[in-house]
Amino acid sequence: MGQDHAGSYQCYYRTRTGWSERSDPLQLVVTGPYIKPSLSALPSPVVMSGGNVTLQCGSRWGFNRFLLTKEGEDESFWGLDGQRTPDGQTQALFPVGPVTPGHRWTFRCYSFYRHSPRVWSAPSDPLELLVSGGGTGPPPAPCPEAPGGALSGRLPPGPVGTIHRGQYRCYGGHGLSSKWSAPSETLELLVAGEEPAGRLRDRPSLSVRPGPTVAPGENVTLLCQSGERTDTFLLSKEGASHRPLRLRSQDQDGRYQAEFSLSPVTSAHGGTYRCYGSLSTDPYLLSQPSEPLALVVADYTVQNVTRMGLAASVLLLLGILLCQAWHDHGGAEMQPGAEHRDPAPPRAQEPGT
User: Model's pTM, two decimal places?
Assistant: First the structure.
């Protein structure tokens, strides 16, 4: 088969009295001359039972028509004109739904040119929608972590790269059933320090006001700055279980910055902080981290009481030592048989002797 075989075919036969009517037309489509398009689900291929989803079929070859096919017993197809995207690609957005867990929802898409409607690209990779909420049981813990003893799914082993950045959720199911539990809480995986060339090359700086050592109750500001365009700054504390703090950057005389306020500070705010920068076009890809900044929250009241107590202890000890020395010196003078005695006065002589 080749592209020349594509087209509309009809057949008819001849009898002694003439030709028969023509058959219904048969459309012969040839696929494969063009590279396959991509097919993805927005926002996710996991859809709540009864919900809707948008399937995005796209190509970088400038096709102006796209066709979405649904496989299975209820096979069907839909065609849409392509729309050009800001990055020069073309795409079509197919609304699908409501989705039910009764059967599988498997799709492929094709791309072609309007002037040659029967010569299609190779089919996209199949996309299967997973129906969530049709199963039973509570949602699992966020991926890729799970409590000890619980069943869990993990990312493939190996080093983490930029391809792993994004949002993750877990779903629970049984065997090959198309029914899945409700989703877990969202887990964000942020990848830092592997930005593409020409983006986020500047390592941000992190400073603190009024200083790295403060007393409880003071107002503290952590200032994150960068010399190149940065849309968002993230402030992360070592060992913290909560998500990093995010702030939109402000342009101040050509420098981008964000001020993170910790007011009033407590002992829990003490620790080591770093800040990162990101762009709005790729919020899960971060810059190199800033140099670490150690924030010390010192309770001066407790320190002063401790110092006064220590000074009192030293004075008390000195007093005890002085008393002991005075006691030892005075007791030695009262002991019998002392070597230093006053001589007895001379006896007077009697007359006539």
Answer: 0.49
